[in-house]
Amino acid sequence: MDISSHVRIGPFEVLYPVQPAGPARAHSSGSNYPGRLFIVEGIDGSGKSTQLSLLHKWLESKGYGVVFSEWNSSPLVKDTTKLGKKKKMLTPATFSLIHATDFADRTERSILPLLKAGAVVLCDRYAYTAFARDVARGMDRKWVRELYHFAVKPAVAFYFRVPLDTAIERITSSRDSLKFYEAGMDLGLSDDPVESFRMFQRRILDEYERMVPEFGLTVIDATLPVEEQQSQVRRIAKSHLDKAKQLRIRP
Amino acid sequence: MRETYGKLLPGMNLSGLAGRLIVIEGTDGAGRSTQISLLKSWLEEQGHAVLDTGMTRSPLAGEGIRRAKEGNNLGRVTQSLFYATDFIDRLENEIAPALRAGFVVLTDRYIYSLMARAIVRGVDPAWIRSIYSVALKPDAVFYLRLGLDQLIPRVVFSRGFDYWESGMDLNPAHDMYESFCSYQHALLDEFDRLSSEFSFDTVDGSPDAQEVFSVLQSRVLDVLERSAPKAYPFKHLTQTAERLVQNIQPRIISASPQVATRDFELAFQPLAAKPPHKNGNGNGHSNGNGNAHSNGNANGSSFTLPTPDAPDAPPHDET
């Protein structure tokens, strides 16, 4: 048994190394595994989920083994998250930690083994969502990044950039009401859910913009027609799939 | 003023956390819960308001962790984070409010057990330290130390092998006995390293419970006298306070400022201003290889990254 050595989670490039990579450290590339990880990010109402599902359809039609993983969907953890939200028990810190727990379970039991197996993994929201939301809630920027140290770096992280007003109009016209945490009501920014939502999303948008250069997010203009966005997304995805040699083709 | 291990949670006000935070650490079967219940009744008899807390007791994550462990398919990173959620929920909503109200908080395990368990499972020690950099530094850590040979009869002959206590998630191919021994051995080694890093006050856990208790009594008394005025009439507050912690649902965080009466605050003001006590490494217990993780003045130190002891080996494939 080899429990004394510090085993890392895998041979992959991590999103945010806890120790800065020194000269002695071998740089492993994100394409060390046979699969490919594509993720979409953006504020609510940016249209990212639509774009991801169109990419999904296309990849399947091309014969790739595609697996989709959604934010906040771990069967082991989501009941706890639900409880915390329903009873409004979550503080910024526990909100952050329970979402990291959910993401860890999906990483350990799904995303990572699937990438090893050669699947194309699609994630609707990724660690960047936590970086944006948790920091908007007042968590320390570095602490949250280190919390997600175990996350695999995606081949492409698409960021759907949309002006705040456009996103808010899309959300408020399609929903009856905003949920407590969704609107950032826990921060006490405003008693009016829509106003609170606006202020909260403003902060989140600022965090996303900061992350574009920090993590090299691939920006897609989400005000363009759906079709045009999708053709950009497919073109970029394709360039990463071309390099992949070991992708499994569906039987 | 009380300190953290380097980072501050939003909304955590460190001033006025005047109570005493006392940690009882030790591996499985070291007698922690027995000692805590003895200490609690004794302290209450002395007139102290006591909160006792421990792993998986948070209203938020306790049940979720128990459910997740039933399936035996909890990964090591997930497990570490689930426990961190449980810990931070109790830190923010029970421990800190109780300290603010002047309680003696007895905690069955603290971040050290959580770090030890994570580290023996192979997670990056720098990562787990970063997470717990938001924890409050306790006033004392009593480490009930028991060797593996003493541990085996206590655990195995009393309640049998437990999947997680035997580290079966690490060694599914081993039989439970072998797995238990290697897992607990690794944990003890890690505790020894943490002991020097964080200046645990080590207490020999091998004598009978009453004997261990009297050792603890005198050391806890030291912690209280170092800071608290003797025989402050807590008694009339004990019951109210007790009810508050046990019964007010679901959160006591908003209730705490009212509990901290003027009297309380005055009684504790000068104490809170004192610097945190640095324990000597009690009985000189040392394991010889603790240096790798030690950075000297444990309770006074912060978790800063990168840690000098962090392995800089390149990531490698587990398979």
Instruction: Report strand order across the widest sheet of chain B.
Output: 2-3-1-4-5
Number of strands of chain A: 5
Distance between the termini of chain A: 38 Å
The structural class of chain B is alpha/beta
Residue share in β-strands of chain A: 5-15%
Q: SSE order of chain A, as H and E? A: EHEHHEHHEHHEH
Q: What Rg of chain A, in angstroms, do the CA atoms define?
A: 18 Å
The largest interface is:
A-B, 52 and 63 residues
Low confidence ranges of chain B: 229-237, 247-300, 304-319
Radius of gyration of chain B, rounded? 19 Å
Number of domains of chain B: 1
What value does the average pLDDT of chain B take?
79
Largest sheet of chain A: 5 strands, parallel
Helix share of residues of chain A?
A: 40-55%
**Which structural class do you get from the secondary structure elements of chain A?**
alpha/beta
CATH architecture of chain B: 3-Layer(aba) Sandwich
Q: Determine the number of helices of chain B (DSSP H or I, runs of at least 4 residues).
A: 11
Count the DSSP helices of chain A.
8
Coarse morphology of chain A: globular
Give the amount of beta strand of chain B, in percent.
Answer: 5-15%
Keyword list:
heterodimer; A: 251 residues; alpha/beta; Rossmann fold; five-stranded parallel sheet; 8 helices; 5 strands; 47% helix; 10% strand; disordered N terminus; B: 319 residues; 8% strand; globular
Briefly characterize the structure.
With 251 residues, chain A is α/β, with parallel strands linked by helices. Chain A is 47% helix and 10% strand. Chain A has one domain (36-243): P-loop containing nucleotide triphosphate hydrolases (Rossmann fold), CATH 3.40.50.300.
